[in-house]
Amino acid sequence: MNTVLKAAAAYIIVLFVIRLIGRRTASQQAPIDMVVLFLFGGLSVSAVLGDDRSFVGAMSALFTVGLMHVAVSWLKLRFVWFERIVDGTPIVVFRDGRWNETAMRRLRMQQADIRTAARQEKLDDLDKVAVAVVERDGTVSILEKE
User: Fold this and answer.
1) Same domain assignment for residues 5 and 72
2) Which CATH number is 94's domain given?
3) Does 46 share its domain with 105?
4) Do 7 and 74 have their domain in common?
5) Co-location of 92 and 122 in the same domain
6) Which of the four pLDDT bands, split at 50, 70 and 90, describes residue 104?
7) Dihedral sign for Cα atoms in the order 121, 124, 130, 134
8) Whole-prediction pTM value?
9) How many whole angstroms separate alpha carbon 121 and alpha carbon 117?
10) Which domain of life is it from (predicted)?
11) For 23-77, what is each residue's pLDDT tens digit?
């Protein structure tokens, strides 16, 4: 039972820390971001299993994390406020030629990240961009001016 409680706690803590780190890790995965994610996994396994190297302990942790994921998914469907806490909301970072510097700092994004997203949409000049939105998953959506 100790493993189950540790696995449940680890799920909640890792979810919280990933939300705290921000969207950039989820979407762009620069090498440094991948290092953080791999370390989270390794450290979580060590914390959950401790000295228990048994098959039953590992499977208990695995099922607990799976059930926690199902529970969080269900709560997100049931409660909009919970979904916003877990997944966040889209954030406008550029509109009509003006940067939302406060949002950019909070997201720890640079103008170069938005310019890259614009180029990926075949827009070489921000004068052609109406709006840039950082989506809940960290991707940047670019809406072209008409």
Assistant:
1) yes
2) 3.30.240.20
3) no
4) yes
5) yes
6) very high
7) positive
8) 0.68
9) 7
10) Bacteria
11) 654 555 666 666 777 777 787 888 787 887 788 888 888 889 889 999 999 999 9
Work out how many domains the chain is built from and give that number. 2
Note whether 71 and 18 are same-domain residues: yes
Q: What is the mean pLDDT of the chain?
A: 85
Three-state secondary-structure class, residue 127: helix
How many C-beta atoms surround the C-beta of residue 139 within 10 A?
14
Shared domain check, 52 and 1:
yes
Distances (CA, A) of 23 to 48, 61, 90, 127: 26, 27, 10, 26
> How far apart are alpha carbons 130 and 146 in whole angstroms?
8
Domain enclosing residue 134, as ranges: 88-142
| Distances in whole angstroms, Cα of residue 47 to Cα of each of 2, 6, 39, 61, 68 | 11, 8, 12, 11, 17
pLDDT for res 71: 93
